[in-house]
Recover the amino acids of this structure.
């Protein structure tokens, strides 16, 4: 165990933090009903997160702490959890007798986690100033979620959706987004010791730490429980794959291969995050079952408020 790492403090901090995020989500839900806000405002917040707050957070953290490349050793086990969950999610959809479009949706939302908008800011709060933890969280988000979702995930969804050919050119455009460019730019700034004014880094990091709250406010604004209509049983089963099976696979991998903390904890918690919001976009683009994906994403985001502390506790009690 790394010196200064306090896993029990992590679990104690996780509950109140998630409780606060639940209140933000409820605020968004109330605003949608009382003030008539909705999908349009949610899209504005999502755009702000993708193009401003998350890139600012990534750049500030990397420019200050740099990238611990040794954290890359968690990537195979994160990928294992993702691939296993994709297969099991699809199997669950088949067991419920759902069609091919729904099977494609189930595999995507059961496997790809909200490692960026929720996982990364959450883990940076739980492990402040820990370069290994922040590097692991960023690598998992960049490689396992972002790159694999827009390549492997999109190709998988295309197979079960309209059957269109995989658009490699569109996938490559992912690498031009501020969210992706912030990682090499921040790491380069640290490696070259560029004289970035401290107030600028502080401002960018402060701006970036609003990400999680903006995401949950957006989720509350766009929350549509009607998406669960007629899909309750399969949605619950797919959520169980995402929130319980995926972190269980990650936990088994990091324990069997003796991955040290905080890397082990980061890998398991990232796998335990609810379905990635971008997974619904992939499902819609490829002609898969969007209502099912939206239902699972909504339910998983709500249920994760309870399952994340449970997973964190299991990580603690299974620690060697």
């Amino acid at each position: 165990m790394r010196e200064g790492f306090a896993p029990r403090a992590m679990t104690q901090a996780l509950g109140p933090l998630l409780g606060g995020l639940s209140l933000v989500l409820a605020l968004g839900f109330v605003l949608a009903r009382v003030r008539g806000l909705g999908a349009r405002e949610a899209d504005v917040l999502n755009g702000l997160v993708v193009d401003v707050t998350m890139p600012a957070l990534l750049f500030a953290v990397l420019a200050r702490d740099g990238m611990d490349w040794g954290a890359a050793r968690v990537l195979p086990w994160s990928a294992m959890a993702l691939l296993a969950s994709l297969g099991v999610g699809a199997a669950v959809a088949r067991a419920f007798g759902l069609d091919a479009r729904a099977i494609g949706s189930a595999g995507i939302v059961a496997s790809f986690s909200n490692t960026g908008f929720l996982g990364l800011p959450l883990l940076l709060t739980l492990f402040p100033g820990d370069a290994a933890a922040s590097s692991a969280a960023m690598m998992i988000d960049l490689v396992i979620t972002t790159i694999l979702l827009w390549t492997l995930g999109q190709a998988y969804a295309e197979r079960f959706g309209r059957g269109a050919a995989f658009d490699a050119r569109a996938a490559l455009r992912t690498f031009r987004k501020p969210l992706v460019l912030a990682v090499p730019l921040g790491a380069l700034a640290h490696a070259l010791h560029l004289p970035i004014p401290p107030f600028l880094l502080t401002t960018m990091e402060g701006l970036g730490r609003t990400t999680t709250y903006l995401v949950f406010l957006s989720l509350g604004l766009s929350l549509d429980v009607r998406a669960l209509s007629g899909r309750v049983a399969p949605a619950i089963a797919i959520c169980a794959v995402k929130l319980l099976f995926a972190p269980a696979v990650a936990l088994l991998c990091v324990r069997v291969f003796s991955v040290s903390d905080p890397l082990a904890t980061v890998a398991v918690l990232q796998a335990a995050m609810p379905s990635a919001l971008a997974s619904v976009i992939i499902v819609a683009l490829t002609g898969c079952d969007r209502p099912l994906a939206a239902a699972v994403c909504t339910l998983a985001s709500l249920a994760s408020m309870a399952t994340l502390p449970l997973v964190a506790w299991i990580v603690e009690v299974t620690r060697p």
